[in-house]
């Protein structure tokens, strides 16, 4: 092989390597995880900072990459055609074109792009400085070609996928993915924080008919000593709530006599449609830990505490309370109290019972049959069998639920 042939082969190899560089760079810069990239930049990685700056003008960068890639591929094809014609004649041009095409597809397209997709940092970080220089000098030409292309496709020049922030659903999808670097409990807590914007006070309140109240002047209160709760204080023979007292202070309350109620925590009212995140901020702003929930007519529907909100994020403070109202049977069915919320049951059993419009299991039954049952009823809802097992007056006290497999 003469010196001319050797030089031509070397140039062809260089062009194929450049083609592989542009192909791998394109894939790697698109495949990089934005969250990891931002974290690397915060830790002082200069290449990550350059890549983020390139992503801000991704249309110009992709145009430069395509210009470079096509330029080297066309040059390689022209150079090989010249070599084949000179050495072997016109009739062998198609063989040379075929061999070069296969060579480029394997070594300048599939191989570098596959590697870049699996290990994007290995390609994008070293290539970032070269792309920055090329974009600086060829960016205007790339932008002109991109504008012509966009006029044909109807895409605006300022549209940039990487400039779009994650919305709430996308962020929740990220948190759904398991990772060894973050504990499951931490991931669940982060997901629960996002849910504070979606849930309302109505979703977690304690119904007012289930709230233990104490009367002024009545010293026979059945209040558990080990419970850390707030108790509404009412006038004797009245439902008017005068304020709250902490269960730890019940003994001092029993020793009190008179009409002065200044020692009570003043009632604080919140609408039942208040989002949990807003209510958490309200508790913080007002320095309160307990509030009465009212509906649109001003009627008291329940009670909510700061502890209830925090438990939405961290889970129950008292592990024994997890099992209250939800009992799993040997046949994998579940017996629940009618007051248990649908959301709580779904979360515990990983079910998907509809959480709207009813909030509790008893409300779900009433919503489905459109009346208050006078006797036990059984309904089928999607893949769930729901059967009431205990009814007292107008209240559904106990329900058995099983899921069809």
From TrEMBL:
<feature type="transmembrane region" description="Helical">
    <location>
        <begin position="61"/>
        <end position="85"/>
    </location>
</feature>
<feature type="domain" description="CBS">
    <location>
        <begin position="261"/>
        <end position="323"/>
    </location>
</feature>
<feature type="transmembrane region" description="Helical">
    <location>
        <begin position="6"/>
        <end position="24"/>
    </location>
</feature>
<dbReference type="Pfam" id="PF03471">
    <property type="entry name" value="CorC_HlyC"/>
</dbReference>
<dbReference type="InterPro" id="IPR002550">
    <property type="entry name" value="CNNM"/>
</dbReference>
<dbReference type="Pfam" id="PF00571">
    <property type="entry name" value="CBS"/>
</dbReference>
<feature type="domain" description="CNNM transmembrane">
    <location>
        <begin position="1"/>
        <end position="186"/>
    </location>
</feature>
<keyword id="KW-0812">Transmembrane</keyword>
<dbReference type="InterPro" id="IPR005170">
    <property type="entry name" value="Transptr-assoc_dom"/>
</dbReference>
<dbReference type="Pfam" id="PF01595">
    <property type="entry name" value="CNNM"/>
</dbReference>
<dbReference type="InterPro" id="IPR046342">
    <property type="entry name" value="CBS_dom_sf"/>
</dbReference>
<keyword id="KW-0472">Membrane</keyword>
<dbReference type="InterPro" id="IPR000644">
    <property type="entry name" value="CBS_dom"/>
</dbReference>
<feature type="transmembrane region" description="Helical">
    <location>
        <begin position="91"/>
        <end position="111"/>
    </location>
</feature>
<dbReference type="GO" id="GO:0005886">
    <property type="term" value="C:plasma membrane"/>
</dbReference>
<comment type="similarity">
    <text>Belongs to the UPF0053 family.</text>
</comment>
<keyword id="KW-0129">CBS domain</keyword>
<keyword id="KW-1133">Transmembrane helix</keyword>
<dbReference type="InterPro" id="IPR044751">
    <property type="entry name" value="Ion_transp-like_CBS"/>
</dbReference>
<dbReference type="GO" id="GO:0050660">
    <property type="term" value="F:flavin adenine dinucleotide binding"/>
</dbReference>
<keyword id="KW-1003">Cell membrane</keyword>
<dbReference type="InterPro" id="IPR016169">
    <property type="entry name" value="FAD-bd_PCMH_sub2"/>
</dbReference>
<protein>
    <submittedName>
        <fullName>CNNM domain-containing protein</fullName>
    </submittedName>
</protein>
<keyword id="KW-0677">Repeat</keyword>
<dbReference type="InterPro" id="IPR036318">
    <property type="entry name" value="FAD-bd_PCMH-like_sf"/>
</dbReference>
